[in-house]
């Protein structure tokens, strides 16, 4: 059944789909996002990618180096907040605009329990509500976090610090000093555990104008068939999704609801894509014929000024 779909990844500064743009999965070019709340560059990598745009690389050098050799995907970003925000307020996770409780396959409750117990204890939310959501504090949920220097507070221009093989935990310049002054552990797993404590998160600020880099990745979700593969437990949702269903990741301020950016994964029926391509091809060919000059026609001398 999975071979009947193609994956499409979009990203943008809000929930409004009209603001979204296609992400060049596994490509070197970042998707640039700018809003009143932040400036960001987003990169998405997916192992064995089968999706849009057609002809996209199937993989990335990212998956050839530790610690990513077993990972299935990555959402990496460079972020500059435009206003200072509490470390307890900035969250990352999934949400939906409509109820999904009737579409959740058997075993979803067990899967959620495993995720919260073994993978991310900081997750909180309700997938059975009218507006399902599952968020975790960015400080304790993001796999890798790097703190960098500040930039010009008026331009908010992101420096060229993208790396094909991913980022590393730590800091650059003032960012490293800031981590040390707060006592933030250098090891990513210890940092995540450290920030599970609310008082630690409240003592941290994401400063306006400072550059932050994050990388969220894991080996558990296979986006080519929307399956979840946890330790000792597997779950496929492919047979339960509709044509408009998507999995949306969001970075937001949970206190105000302000959205920094979203990344949306959608399975598009291959048949629909083929029909669209055929329609566009026919349209182009038709326009070409309309504008074509008859080669057999030669203007008479009287026709030429």
Automatic annotation (TrEMBL):
<dbReference type="InterPro" id="IPR013897">
    <property type="entry name" value="Duc1"/>
</dbReference>
<protein>
    <submittedName>
        <fullName>DUF1769-domain-containing protein</fullName>
    </submittedName>
</protein>
<dbReference type="Pfam" id="PF08588">
    <property type="entry name" value="Duc1"/>
</dbReference>
<feature type="region of interest" description="Disordered">
    <location>
        <begin position="272"/>
        <end position="305"/>
    </location>
</feature>
<feature type="domain" description="Domain of unknown function at the cortex 1">
    <location>
        <begin position="7"/>
        <end position="268"/>
    </location>
</feature>
């Amino acid at each position: 059944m999975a071979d009947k779909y193609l994956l499409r990844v979009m990203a943008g500064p809000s929930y409004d789909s009209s603001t979204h743009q296609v992400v060049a999965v596994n490509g070197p070019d970042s998707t640039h996002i700018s809003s009143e709340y932040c400036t960001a560059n987003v990169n998405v990598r997916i192992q064995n990618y089968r999706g849009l745009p057609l002809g996209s690389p199937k993989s990335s050098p990212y998956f050839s180096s530790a610690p990513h050799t077993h990972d299935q995907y990555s959402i990496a970003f460079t972020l500059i907040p435009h206003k200072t925000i509490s470390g307890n307020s900035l969250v990352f996770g999934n949400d939906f605009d409509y109820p999904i409780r009737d579409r959740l396959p058997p075993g979803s409750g067990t899967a959620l329990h495993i995720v919260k117990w073994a993978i991310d204890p900081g997750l909180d939310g309700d997938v059975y509500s009218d507006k399902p959501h599952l968020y975790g504090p960015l400080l304790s949920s993001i796999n890798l976090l790097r703190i960098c220097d500040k930039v010009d507070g008026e331009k908010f221009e992101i420096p060229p610090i993208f790396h094909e093989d991913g980022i590393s935990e730590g800091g650059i310049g003032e960012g490293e000093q800031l981590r040390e002054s707060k006592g933030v552990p250098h090891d990513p797993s210890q940092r995540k555990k450290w920030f599970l404590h609310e008082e630690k998160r409240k003592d941290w600020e994401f400063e306006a104008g400072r550059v932050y880099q994050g990388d969220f990745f894991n080996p558990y979700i296979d986006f080519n068939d929307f399956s979840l593969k946890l330790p000792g437990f597997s779950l496929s949702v492919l047979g339960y999704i509709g044509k408009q269903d998507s999995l949306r990741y969001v970075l937001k301020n949970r206190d105000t609801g302000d959205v920094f950016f979203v990344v949306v994964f959608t399975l598009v029926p291959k048949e629909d894509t083929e029909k669209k391509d055929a329609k566009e091809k026919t349209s182009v060919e038709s326009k070409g014929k309309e504008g074509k000059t008859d080669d057999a026609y030669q203007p008479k001398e009287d026709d030429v000024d």
